[in-house]
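Team,

Forwarding the record for the chain on the shared tracking sheet. I've put the sequence and predicted structure together so nobody has to dig through attachments.
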Amino acid sequence: MALRKIIDWLMPNICICCHAPLATHDVICPYCLEDMPLFAHSEGNLLLRPDIQRDFALPNCNGLIACGWYESQLKVWLKGYKFQHKAYYKKALQQVITQQFSGCLSHAAFAPDLTIVIPLHPIRLATRGFNQVSQTWQPCLLNTVTPIPTLVRSHNTQAQSNLSRHKRQHNIKGAFYVEGSMEGLNVALVDDIITSGATMNAAARACLEAGAAQVWAFTTALTPLNR
């Protein structure tokens, strides 16, 4: 206990945004978390918003839950963790996701029977060394991820980030299939960023073809191509 106090005194926990001291093991203070431009919990299903319906092609999804737009802190943290493996950014993302996920889900009238993280192709996973979506969403997905049935990425697609909307749809076509049956299940698909919706829509189609009753998209951030 004494050693812990000495360590805390030498290296105090501070807010990642304003650098104020924190009494907890969080990395964002309550004031900065409240000040972040996140979607209101009361919005629930974001596919009911006309602007989001217009900018994202998700015809195979019944609903959408997201933390916020891909900008400001969310953009810095997602890029920093994904490409630079900065663990401090991972903790910040987990804190935001945990707050937003529980709050938005309570207003969305949706309870997933099965939660699946959009898989990376084995070659991409081996190159990167980890699935950043699984890592950041882990606190929310405990006891909700079921190994069977399994969503499989059948081929190693080109990275979507530099492609146009049309090329994204063509690039991802037929990229997923499901091993097992999802008959009558409410399925939640999780990804870190949705841009055009092509990847999420292709994964959702595979789930529907496997018998899923509903498919909802869960994501950390939204960034339409024309934003």
